[in-house]
Design brief:
The complex is a heterodimer of chains A (697) and B (379).
Chain A lengths: L14 E8 L6 E8 L12 H16 L3 E8 L3 E3 L4 H5 L4 H20 L4 E5 L2 E3 L1 H8 L2 E5 L5 E2 L2 H4 L7 H9 L1 H13 L7 H7 L4 E3 L4 H13 L14 H18 L4 H13 L4 H16 L2 H14 L20 E4 L3 H14 L3 E4 L3 H20 L5 H10 E3 L11 E4 L5 H12 L7 E4 L6 H5 L8 E6 L8 E6 L5 H13 L3 E6 L6 H18 L3 H6 L10 H8 L1 H14 L8 H8 L6 E4 L2 E4 L1 H6 L9 H22 L5 H11 L10 H6 L2 H6 L13
Parallel strand pairs in A: 2-3, 3-5, 4-6, 5-7, 6-8, 7-9, 10-11, 10-13, 11-12, 13-14, 14-15, 16-17
Antiparallel strand pairs in A: 1-2, 15-16, 18-19
Helix pairs in contact in A: 1-3, 3-12, 4-6, 6-7, 7-10, 7-11, 10-11, 11-12, 14-15, 15-16, 20-23, 20-26, 22-23
Chain B lengths: L6 H15 L8 E7 L11 H8 L9 E3 L5 H14 L5 E9 L14 H4 L10 H11 L5 H20 L10 E5 L3 E5 L11 H5 L21 E9 L1 H7 L6 E9 L9 H12 L6 E6 L4 H10 L15 H4 L6 H15 L5 E8 L3 E8 L12
Parallel strand pairs in B: 1-2, 1-3, 8-9
Antiparallel strand pairs in B: 3-6, 4-5, 7-10, 9-10
Classes of the chains: A alpha/beta (697), B alpha/beta (379).
C-alpha cells in the first residue's frame, strides 16, 4: 500500500467477515468471506480504501490457513457489492492517486484469483461496477434469481471498469456480449442486467432460486471440489469475432453519442487491446485509462449528474414540508386528447385513485376513455400490470361532460389547448363545483400560472404542473408556483409528483419555466442561422458534441413545429430582444408543410414543400459560428434565469435539462459544460459552479 | 447457529427440500399444509401453513393452516392431515413443525388463568417441565439419577455412532446461516450433541429444579431451534405418483395425565393406540420415544418392562443429544423410525411417542412398507 491513498473520513467501510464452515458431502472446509458494512439495505456495500484493505486482509488470512478446500465470497442481504465508493474517487486530486486506486484494486482482487483452492463468488444480490469485477476474479460464479442489478455502469459515469472488467469480462463471455455490458447498457440510460440475463450471457455458471440460493451454492461448490461436477464454458474467440465486435461498437457508439462520451471510446479501446494482452498488461492499461478519466472534467461532471439524479431528485429543493400536503383521493383531468389521456393513465396507474376525464363533447371523452382502456389492456397482456391492478384501474377511470363529477376531486389538471382565456374559463367554471382547497394544476408549457389564477375565487390553489413528452418516459415535472400559490398547494403537488415517480423541480412562474425556455433559446439560434442562409445539415450538426439524444430538426419534428412555433412566439413576446420566432416557421405552419426536413442517410435536407415556402438570407454561418451562438445564448439565458430567481440554484437547471431534455450525464447537465467551455466566464464574467463541483479544478 | 435465522425461513427450506426430493409430486396436488409451532407469534405466527406455502413458491391454490399441541405440534400436524386423508378430503398433504426456542422461549406468550392456582386445579409444578420430571422421579423412586444419567450418556453415544455411520445426515436439510458479526456459513449437522459424554461427567451437574434433585441439563433435552417436515399421501395416490413410501399409519392416540407428571403421558396414549391397532408393545420392532427427560423415557420403559438399553429403543439416539425444538420433534421421531424401517425390512411395526406439556402423551403406530417377512422382535 502507499501513502498517497488514504481512507476518506466518511467511508462506511465494508468489512470482509471470514467464517469457516464444513461443506456438504465431507468435501472439506470452506472459507466464507461475507462482505458487510453492518447497515441495512438503505446503505449498499461499496469499497473504499478501508474496504479494500479489509478484503486484502481477509484474503491473506484465508491464503495462510491450511486445509481450506474452497473459498466462497458473498454479500449481505440484497447486495453482493455495488462497486467503488464514489465519494472516495471524487476526492482524488492527482493522477498518481487515481492510478494507485486502480492498481490497488487489481492487487487486492487478484489475491482471490491467486488462492490455490477453487474460489466461488455467490452473487446473492446487486453486483455493480467493482462488485461485479470482484466476482469475475473467482474461478466460479453462482447467481441468485433475486440478484436485482448486475452491471458495469462505469462508462455511464464517465470512467471505465478499472478493476479488471475490461479484461476479465470479454475473456469470460466474449467481446460482443462484454461490450454490450460495458458500453451499450451504460449508454442506454444505464440499463442493468436481470439475474437470468446475467446467467444467459455466461457471467454466472449457475442460477439458483433465491430461497435456496446459498444452500445450493454450497452443494455445487462441494461437488466441484470433489470433482463430481465440472463447469464447461464456451471458448472465447479472441480473433476475428473480437475485432469485429470492437469495430461495430465504435460505429454504434459514434452514431449514438457522436464523439461525446469519451469513456465509451476508451472502454472500447481497452477491450480491443485486451484480445492479445496478458492479464497483467490488461490491468496496467486499465490503471492508466482510469487515472486519466478520473482526472477528467467529464467524469466529474458525470458524478455531479449522478448525484443530482440520485440525491437532489429524491429531496427537491424548495419543497415545503410534507406535513402541509393534503391527501389526494380523486383526480380530475380536463381534456381527453392524447396528452391529457396519457396524464390520466399515469395518475391511474401510479396513484391508484378514481380519475375522471372531461372534454368539450362526449365523442372526445369516449375516444380518450377508449385510449386509456386500450393501454391498460395492453399493459395487462404484456405482463406489466397484474390482473388486480388492471381491474382496479378500469374501475377507477370514468368520463363526464358534467363538471359535477369533479366536485370531490382533490387534484385537477388541465391539458387543453394552449390559450389563456380558454384555461381561465375552464378554471372559473370548475370553481363552481369543486372544494375551496382542491388543487387546480395546469400543464401549460408557456402561459402564466399567475394570470390563470388571478380571476378565480381561490387563486392560491392554482399552480403549474408541467410534464414532458412522452409522459410515461420523461422523468421531469416542473412545478411552477404562481405569485398567489400557497404552500399547502405546492406541498400537495410535490407529494403527487413523488407518487407519480417523477423528478420534480420547483420553478417560478416565468415564461416556459426552465427546460422549454432554454430549448427555445437554443433552437432559436439554430433557426435564425437557417433563416440567414445556413445550410440545414450544417445547422443540424452544429451541436453534435452535446451528445443529445437526437438532432435539432429531429427534435423539432418530434415536438411538432406548431407547438414549437407557438412557444417561441410566446417567448418572443416576453423577451423580444433574445427569443427568435422564425417567420419561415410561421409560413411552414400556415402552409401545413409536413415533414419539414427529412434525412437522406445521415444528412438533413429540407423537403421540396418546405423549400417552396421558405425565404433565406444570403449569409452562410458555419457550424462553428452557430455552435458558438448557441452556447452563448444558453449561458446568457441560464444566467438571467438565475438572476430572475426562476429556480433557486443552477443545480435545478442542470437536473431539468438531464431529465426533461435528455441532456446526457457525461455533460453533467448544462452548467458544467458551459463552465468547461469557458462560455460562462466569457458571457457572464463568472462560472456557474465553483471549481471542483463538476470539474477537476 | 440459528441465532439470527428466522423460524419461517427454516420451514421454507424444509418444504422446498421435501418437494425437491420428491420430484414426482406436482406441488399443485398438495391439498393442505399443516404447520405447527408452540409460540405462534412473530416469525412463528401469521398462519404458518399458508405463509410458508407462499414463501416456498408453491402455487397459490395450495392452502395451509397453523396448529399447536406444544411439544407434539408436528405429531399433531401429521395425525390431523392423516385424518383428512383417511376421510377422503385430501389426497396429499404436508405436515411440518418448527420451534425457535432462542427467539421464542417456552412460555413467551403464556398468560395462565388465575383459576389454575386459585382453585388448585393443577399443581403449580405443572407449568415447569423440569419440576414435572422431578415429580416423576418421586412417583417412581426406582428411577434413580444414576439410571437417568446412564440413559443420557447412552443417548449421546448412540447419536455419535449414528452420525459416524451416516444414518442421520441423509435426512438433514442444509441451511445457510448468517450472523451480522460473522457472516455466512452452512449448517449441515445438529449443533447440540456432545459426543463422549460420560456418566461420570453427568454425575456432577447441578439440579436446577430442586436442591439435591435428579434432573440436570445433561439428562434432559436442551432448548434449541429446529424444523421438520413430511409429505403424507393416501396410499393409492402415493403409488399412482410413484412416491417413496417410508411409513404406513396404523393408528394414533392422544391422552392426558396429571399435568404435574406430564412425562408419563406416553403410557396412556400408547395403550390407547395399541388397543386401536389391535397390537401389543411386543409387536413394536422399534420404539422412537422423545427424550424430553431421561426419567420420562424410563418411566415408559418400566411400565412396559423394557430394559433401559433395549436395542429397539431410540437406536440412533434422541432428544437428549440433538435437542427438542418443541413443535418439530414429532416428525423427527418419525424420520428416525423411517430410517430404521428402511434398514430392517424384517421389522413390521414401530411406535413414535412423546410426552406433552400440561400433561399429555401422543403416540402413533406405523407399519413398515418395506416389510418382507417374519418379524423379529430384536432388531
Amino acid at each position: 500500500m502507499t501513502e498517497t491513498a488514504t481512507k476518506a473520513p466518511s467511508e462506511l467501510v465494508t468489512n470482509s467477515l471470514v467464517r469457516y464452515t464444513e461443506l456438504p458431502f465431507d468435501a472439506g472446509l470452506a472459507a466464507v468471506i461475507t462482505l458487510d458494512n453492518g447497515r441495512d439495505h438503505t446503505k449498499p456495500t461499496t469499497l473504499g480504501q478501508g474496504g479494500l484493505e479489509a478484503l486484502a486482509q481477509a484474503l491473506d488470512e484465508v491464503a495462510a490457513k491450511p486445509g481450506v478446500a474452497a473459498t466462497i465470497v458473498t454479500g449481505k442481504p440484497y447486495f453482493f457489492l455495488v462497486g467503488a465508493d464514489l465519494k472516495n474517487i471524487g476526492m482524488v486530486r492527482d493522477k498518481a492517486m487515481a492510478h494507485e486506486i486502480a492498481s490497488y484494486g487489481h492487487e487486492v482482487f487478484s489475491k482471490l484469483a491467486d488462492l490455490r483452492m477453487p474460489t466461488f463468488a455467490a452473487i446473492n444480490g446487486a453486483a455493480m461496477g467493482g462488485g461485479l469485477e470482484l466476482a469475475l476474479y473467482a474461478d466460479y460464479r453462482s447467481i441468485s434469481t433475486a440478484a436485482a442489478a448486475i452491471a458495469l455502469p462505469e462508462v455511464f459515469l464517465g470512467i471505465i471498469p478499472g478493476w479488471g472488467g475490461t479484461y476479465l469480462l470479454p475473456h469470460l463471455i466474449g467481446a460482443p456480449n462484454a461490450i454490450k455490458v460495458i458500453v451499450d447498457n451504460p449508454l442506454s440510460n444505464n440499463k442493468m442486467l436481470k439475474p437470468q440475463e446475467a446467467f444467459d450471457l455466461g457471467i454466472a455458471d449457475v442460477i439458483y432460486p433465491a430461497p435456496d440460493f446459498l444452500e445450493k451454492t454450497f452443494v455445487w461448490a462441494a461437488k466441484i471440489v470433489l470433482g463430481q461436477t465440472k463447469v464447461e464454458r464456451k471458448p472465447v474467440d479472441t480473433g476475428a469475432q473480437w475485432a469485429d465486435a470492437v469495430a461495430d461498437a465504435r460505429k454504434r457508439v459514434a452514431a449514438r453519442v457522436r464523439g461525446a462520451a469519451r469513456s465509451a471510446y476508451v472502454a472500447i479501446d481497452l477491450i480491443e487491446g485486451n484480445a492479445k494482452r496478458t492479464r497483467a498488461e490488461g490491468f496496467a492499461a486499465e490503471d492508466d485509462a482510469l487515472a486519466d478519466l478520473v482526472m477528467s472534467d467529464y467524469f466529474r461532471a458525470g458524478l455531479y449528474s449522478f448525484d443530482l439524479v440520485q440525491r437532489r431528485a429524491k429531496k427537491p429543493a424548495g419543497a415545503p414540508d410534507t406535513s402541509l400536503a393534503r391527501p389526494v383521493t380523486k383526480v380530475g383531468v380536463i381534456g381527453a386528447g392524447l396528452m391529457a389521456s396519457q396524464l390520466a393513465l399515469l395518475f391511474l396507474r401510479r396513484l391508484e385513485v378514481p380519475v375522471v376525464i372531461t372534454d368539450i363533447d362526449q365523442a372526445r371523452i369516449d375516444k380518450g376513455l377508449a385510449y386509456i382502456r386500450g393501454e391498460l389492456a395492453k399493459a395487462l397482456e404484456r405482463g406489466r400490470m397484474s390482473q388486480t391492478a388492471h381491474d382496479r384501474a378500469l374501475q377507477n377511470i370514468s368520463g363526464s361532460l358534467d363538471y359535477q363529477a369533479f366536485k370531490d376531486a382533490d387534484f385537477i389538471i388541465e391539458a387543453v389547448f394552449e390559450e389563456l382565456s380558454l384555461k381561465i374559463e375552464i378554471f372559473k367554471k370548475l370553481e363552481g363545483y369543486i372544494s375551496d382547497t382542491a388543487v387546480l394544476a395546469t400543464n401549460t408549457s408557456s402561459l402564466s400560472v399567475t394570470k390563470m389564477a388571478a380571476p378565480l375565487t381561490h387563486p392560491e390553489r392554482v399552480l403549474g404542473f408541467h410534464f414532458f413528452n412522452p409522459v410515461a418516459v420523461m422523468p421531469l415535472l416542473e412545478i411552477a408556483k404562481g405569485e398567489l400559490t400557497d404552500d399547502a398547494t405546492v406541498a400537495t403537488a410535490f407529494e403527487v409528483a413523488k407518487k407519480l415517480k417523477k423528478t420534480s423541480i420547483l420553478v417560478k412562474d416565468a415564461p416556459a419555466f426552465v427546460v422549454n425556455r432554454l430549448l427555445m433559446r437554443f433552437m432559436g439560434e439554430i433557426f435564425r442561422a437557417v433563416d440567414e442562409g445556413a445550410d440545414v445539415d450544417v445547422a443540424d450538426r452544429s451541436v453534435d458534441d452535446f451528445g443529445l439524444p437526437m438532432r435539432v430538426f429531429q427534435l423539432l419534428e418530434l415536438v411538432g413545429p406548431g407547438v414549437g412555433y407557438h412557444v417561441s412566439k410566446t417567448m418572443q413576446d416576453a423577451f423580444p430582444d433574445r427569443f427568435y420566432a422564425s417567420a419561415n416557421m410561421k409560413a411552414l405552419i400556415d402552409a401545413n408543410v409536413s415533414p419539414i426536413t427529412v434525412y437522406e442517410g445521415d444528412k438533413a435536407v429540407l423537403t421540396p414543400a418546405a423549400l417552396a415556402v421558405m425565404k433565406f438570407g444570403d449569409k452562410k454561418p458555419t457550424g462553428e459560428e452557430i455552435r458558438a451562438r448557441v452556447l452563448a445564448a444558453l449561458a446568457d439565458e441560464t444566467n438571467r434565469m438565475l438572476e430572475e430567481g426562476v429556480v433557486s440554484e443552477v443545480q435545478d437547471i442542470d437536473l431539468g435539462m438531464i431529465t426533461g431534455a435528455g441532456w446526457p450525464f457525461w455533460l453533467g447537465g448544462l452548467s458544467p459544460y458551459l463552465d468547461r467551455e469557458g462560455v460562462s466566464e466569457k458571457v457572464n464574467g463568472k462560472r456557474f459552479l465553483p471549481k471542483g463541483v463538476a470539474s477537476v479544478t | 447457529m440459528y441465532s439470527e435465522t428466522r423460524a419461517d425461513d427454516l420451514l421454507v427450506r424444509v418444504v422446498r427440500e421435501l418437494l425437491e426430493r420428491n420430484p414426482k409430486l406436482p406441488p399443485s396436488r398438495i391439498d393442505d399444509i399443516a404447520i405447527a409451532a408452540t409460540t405462534q407469534t412473530g416469525d412463528q405466527g401469521m398462519t404458518l401453513g399458508r405463509t410458508i406455502g407462499i414463501l416456498a413458491g408453491l402455487p397459490h391454490s395450495v392452502p395451509g393452516y397453523a396448529i399447536d399441541r406444544m411439544c407434539a405440534g408436528a405429531m399433531t400436524a401429521v395425525t390431523t392431515t392423516a385424518s383428512g386423508i383417511a376421510v377422503g378430503a385430501y389426497d396429499v398433504a404436508i405436515a411440518a413443525g418448527v420451534e425457535h426456542m432462542g427467539r421464542h422461549p417456552m412460555g413467551e406468550t403464556f398468560d395462565p388463568n388465575p383459576r389454575f392456582l386459585a382453585e388448585k386445579i393443577v399443581n403449580p409444578d405443572a407449568l415447569v417441565m423440569g419440576q414435572t420430571a422431578e415429580n416423576l422421579h418421586d412417583r417412581f423412586p426406582h428411577i434413580t439419577k444414576e439410571r437417568a444419567d446412564a440413559y443420557a450418556a447412552a443417548s449421546q453415544d448412540k447419536t455419535a455412532k449414528a452420525y459416524a455411520n451416516g444414518r442421520i445426515q441423509p435426512d438433514l436439510v442444509p441451511v445457510a446461516v448468517r450472523t451480522a458479526a460473522e457472516g455466512v456459513a452452512l449448517a449441515t449437522a445438529d449443533e447440540p450433541p456432545r459426543p463422549g459424554t460420560t456418566v461420570e461427567g453427568l454425575a456432577g451437574l447441578r439440579t436446577p429444579f430442586r436442591s439435591h434433585g435428579r434432573v440436570t441439563a445433561g439428562n434432559a433435552a436442551g432448548l434449541n431451534d429446529g424444523a421438520t417436515g413430511a409429505i403424507l399421501a393416501a396410499e393409492e395416490i402415493a403409488d399412482e405418483l410413484g412416491l417413496n413410501k417410508k411409513l404406513r399409519l396404523v393408528s394414533f392416540a392422544f391422552a392426558g395425565v396429571e399435568p404435574e407428571i406430564m412425562g408419563y403421558g406416553p403410557v396412556p396414549s400408547t395403550e390407547k393406540a395399541l388397543a386401536k391397532a389391535g397390537l401389543s408393545i411386543e409387536d413394536m420392532g422399534y420404539i422412537e420415544i422423545n427424550e424430553a427427560f431421561a426419567v420420562q423415557v424410563l418411566s415408559f420403559l418400566d411400565y412396559y418392562k423394557i430394559d433401559d438399553d433395549d436395542p429397539r429403543v431410540n437406536p440412533m439416539g434422541g432428544a437428549i443429544a440433538v435437542g427438542h425444538p418443541l413443535a418439530s420433534s414429532g416428525i423427527r421421531l418419525m424420520q428416525y423410525l423411517a430410517r430404521e424401517f428402511a434398514d430392517a425390512p424384517n421389522v413390521r411395526y414401530g411406535l413414535t411417542t412423546m410426552c406433552i406439556g400440561l400433561g399429555m402423551g401422543g403416540s402413533v403406530i406405523w407399519e413398515n412398507p418395506n416389510y418382507q417377512g417374519a418379524q423379529s422382535k430384536a432388531a
